[in-house]
Amino acid sequence: MTAALSYPPAGYKPVSFSVTTITELMIPSYANFGGKIHGGILLSLMDKVAYVCAAKHAGNYCVTASIDAVNFLAPVEVGDLVSLIASVNYVGKTSMVVGIKVISENVKASVVQHTNTSYFTMVAKDDQNKPAEVPGLILETQEQVRRFEEARKRKELKQSYGQEMQKIKAELDYDTCRETLAGERCWINL
Ligand SMILES: CC(C)(COP(=O)(O)OP(=O)(O)OC[C@H]1O[C@@H](n2cnc3c(N)ncnc32)[C@H](O)[C@@H]1OP(=O)(O)O)[C@@H](O)C(=O)NCCC(=O)NCCS
Fold first, then answer.
1. CA of 122 to the centre of ligand 1 (A)
2. What's the distance, CA 162 to chain centroid?
3. Coiled-coil stretches, from where to where (predicted)?
4. Does a structural domain hold residue 180?
5. Ligand 1 — pocket residues by CB below 6 A?
6. Domain that holds residue 102
7. Which mutation among 48, 95, 158, 159 tests ligand 1's pocket best, with the greatest number of atoms within 8 A of CB?
8. Is residue 130 part of a domain?
9. Rounded distance, CA 39 to CA 33, Å?
10. Which tens digits make up the pLDDT trace of 156-175?
């Protein structure tokens, strides 16, 4: 007996369809006073690669809705080559989570450093500027399955974090703050 063939639903796209890499040379005008590359330069490149990846998957114009955690693990130097590798890790109805890995490379010294990994939530927009449905995602490796589930869990955690933060904010009053800040390195001057 032959196993029944199964196909992805129509319109679904594989992760590989939109994988995007941008490599850019870090020129002196990108540096701060300390001679290292401005964090903002890297953020701008990350936003660019996230856009390209998301727009390819969506087949539509996209906007950045939120960014999850940008931790700079190592400084980037002038003359380094910075590569940003982006892939769609998760899709909802109109949103996509694009995972971005950033590496910097000193080609002369043959040193490659992982500078950060971040997750950009991008939303597709239609011609009326309304969120537009995006194609489903075809997962072709175990790593892609793991990333999809990780993104789903991150989304759930973000929702409960947001609710908890709202509760904390609503409960904060001046007298409680004065008490809890007693051991902190601040001076209340009022
Ligand atoms: C983000 C934005 C598209 C959401 O629009 P909205 O009308 O509130 O749409 P919805 O509530 O229907 O949400 C649409 C999708 O975005 C997701 N979303 C909305 N806000 C989000 C946020 N802060 N973080 C992550 N996802 C978000 C929703 O979960 C939903 O996903 P789904 O369809 O996959 O379930 C809208 O607020 C916007 O255009 N913001 C400005 C974006 C921009 O200009 N970015 C550049 C900044 S300089």
1. 8
2. 18
3. none
4. no
5. 63-66, 92-95, 121, 123, 131
6. 13-139
7. 95
8. yes
9. 12
10. 999 999 999 999 999 999 99
What separation in Å is there between the alpha carbon of 162 and the centre of ligand 1? 15
Q: Is residue 144 part of a domain?
A: no
The domain tally of the chain equals 1
pLDDT, tens digit, 9 for 90 and up, residues 17-60:
999 999 999 999 999 999 999 999 999 999 999 999 999 999 99
Residue count (the chain): 190
For residues 22 and 179, what is the distance between their CA atoms, to the nearest angstrom?
50
pLDDT digits (tens, 9 = 90+) for 106-128: 999 999 999 999 999 999 999 99
Average pLDDT, the chain: 95
Q: Are strands 61-68 and 81-91 parallel, antiparallel or unpaired?
A: unpaired
Measured CA to CA, the distance from residue 50 to residue 98 in angstroms comes to: 6
pLDDT over 90 at 5, yes or no: no
Q: How many CB atoms lie within 10 A of CB 123?
A: 21
